[in-house]
Amino acid sequence: MNWTAQVSALAGIILICAAYFFKTHRALTCSISLGLVAWSVHFLMLGAYTASALAMLSALRVFAGLFVFRLEPGSRFLATAFSLLLSGVVAYLTWEGWRSIPVTVGVLLATIGGYHFDGQALRGWLLGAETFFLFNALLVGSKLALIGSLASIVFVCIACWKHWRVSSEKSAGVVMASEK
Hints:
Elements: H1 3-19, H2 25-46, H3 49-68, H4 73-93, H5 101-114, H6 119-140, H7 143-179
Helix pairs in contact: 1-2, 1-7, 2-3, 3-4, 3-5, 4-5, 5-6, 6-7
């Protein structure tokens, strides 16, 4: 594997992991978008054209999310449908056989999750997407993509656990307060 692919994968991991430490939605979104561009370059260097094209499309979708979240619920549904359709067209145009299946399913799941306002639902969709991205990394033969997917799965699981813990503590507090 050439050094460009390695450096772009490391940049992708760093930018996406760093995004969760930003305080503003705009900074988080830009960091994730740039990380996805880096992954697109990585997959392009490996000859995984479907993964590369879908990563670039995902970068654009995430960046467009800065503007879509201001839309009404009906418009968000149309934006989701358009994103899914566009992802399907890009996957079809760059199709590489069965090895394109995991990344295509992962992008579709991430796209659906990306338009949810409920954090726990988003995490569930992303956990499903990352599982498919893990299979994509195995099929493409990218150790760094495998590490990135495993790290993302761990981060999502930790976020789900924290959300569950906070929710259960709040529920326990409500029950205890109502018993008084």
